Fold each of these.
Amino acid sequence: MISAFVTVDGTRAYDLTDEDGLFLIDPDGELPPNRELRVSALGYIPQVVSLDATSTDAIVVTLQPRPILLEGIEAEVGSYQQRLRVRRNGTPLRRRPLAIGLEALNTHWAENVWEMAGSLFGFSFEGYSDYGCAIANIEGSRRVVELLIDDQPVRLADFTLFQPRDFALVEVWRTRGPWILQAYSQDYLNQSTMAGRRPPPLEVMRTLCPTGGEERPIPMSRS
């Protein structure tokens, strides 16, 4: 089964099954006891598997179909870019996430996406956190900025290798914790559309930085 959503209870680990129904969970460390694997997909009954009860690394989960009443259901969104738009519009944030489209990316003067986002939203590079994550001066505060390319977290050094025109879409998430810059290539959008892939929820996206952010006022300089 493709695009089933697999999570581990109480962690940020997740995966989407590929075209062969395979998934790989990397918990980034030893799992605490009493954890459960949860698998769900549209049109199927969700399944929960106790990880303590398994004695092998290979876990097979079987989902049973659940009939869906079709009356009144609208046509499902097709392209991955449309699915990303649905996620932006449906995410309860105090300040709406923003999207930079293909036309703006192709015409912007900046040398890389970091500079482009800084020029559009008024932030500048301040240094690195203890975890090596980029910190920016945003509205007078130091804020960690998460960086992702094609739904995968990257370091700033890798992020700045790409020019704006290398991407088809850039999302800017202004959360209470870290800000998030996400860039998507056209090839990735096309492949995700063909595979029927769904964007991971914001709260379970793979990230490199702590969830708490690093919001501190920047001291004023005195002459």
Note: The chain has two domains: 1-71, 74-218.
Amino acid sequence: MTSALQQLIDQLSPLWSQNYVFMFACLIATLGVYLLSRKLYFWLDQNPLLHPLTISTLVIGFGLHFAEIDVMAFKRGITLFELLLGPATVALAVPLYNQLPVLRQLGFRVLAPILIGGSLAPTIAWLSVYLLKTPLQLQMTMLVKSITTPLAMGTADLIGGTPELAAVIVILTGIVGATFAPWLIILTKTDSEYAQGLALGSVAHVIGTSKALSVSETCGAFATLGLCLNGIFTALLLPILFA
């Protein structure tokens, strides 16, 4: 209990050691850029290349560069958003709960594609950097590319990867997945919302699940299932294999 309380205090400590004017400016700017990016995304008929996370990331990145604002200072300024990441991930269980009868009915037909997709995506990514003879630390980091950020950072640390780099790779994976998934779905003529959701959640984690929720609650529920099971499976298996 004491350890958990100390961990919570450590997580909250940046909030009361901040310049509050700077912190609120960072929060408002981040939220404002994202909302405008989202509005643009829907205004232009959800063009995959204009995904809100892609646009807002580019705008904020260039903004920090031209304003000469230190990235780590900005990161501390948006600590509140980071703290909300965990609860937001847990909240994805709501659409999953609403679809439990369907999940029970499908059974192993749901589990098989999650395990296959969740294994294939990181294996291909790892193989690409292995063939290029990159450092082992980067290879281990690539293995966590398809699971949600909190799990990816912890798992990367356990297997000899770099937690901070894992977070960047995970976010890029999610953005690429959410950007190109609609085209792949059209190309493969995949009409099943179950299949769409499982693919988005298993490979593109939270960002893919967010995209799935914009399709329908059913698609979002199956994306949540893919996100959760693939994350748990990967986080348990990789330390056993590489720790």
Note: The mean pLDDT is 83.
Amino acid sequence: MRFLIIFDRIAGVFLGLLVALMMVMTFVDVMLRELFFSPLIFAPELTMIGLAAMVYLGLPIVSARQEHITISLFENLFRGRAQRLKKAVISLLLAFLMTGLAYQLWIHAGKMGAEHLLYLGLKKVWIGYCMSVLAGFTAVVFVVRAWIDAKDLRPKFGGQTDLSSSAGS
């Protein structure tokens, strides 16, 4: 779990810098376009890479923190152990789905071959593989969350009563 905390902090700082840089780039692009009729020609490509990075770096963070947007249609039906079991089962289902996404991204990236970005010259295959690896890492995060929730199903001894007291270990 400590690795997730370290990843959370490093990726959080990186994502904050990424958002700031994208904001500055967009401002400069608009100003150049309006004042000199000469936009940054590589801005759309950097925006595409930045958005992919924000989504796939953010997924493990949001998943580890359990901060996904949820709908509480059935929240009142489950209490106590049943609630924790439901969370564990949902985490396993999401791990399965993320594994499928990672696999499909890997296959799609492999099919890109020598395609590259027009202005930056970066091969698209590397972007696809990075997205696939981060989706796979998110699946691992979901498995860890399921394990934590399932572990919490056992009776508590020694004063430990909630997930938050075991999450820091």
Note: Helices lie at 2-36, 43-65, 80-112, 124-151, 163-167.
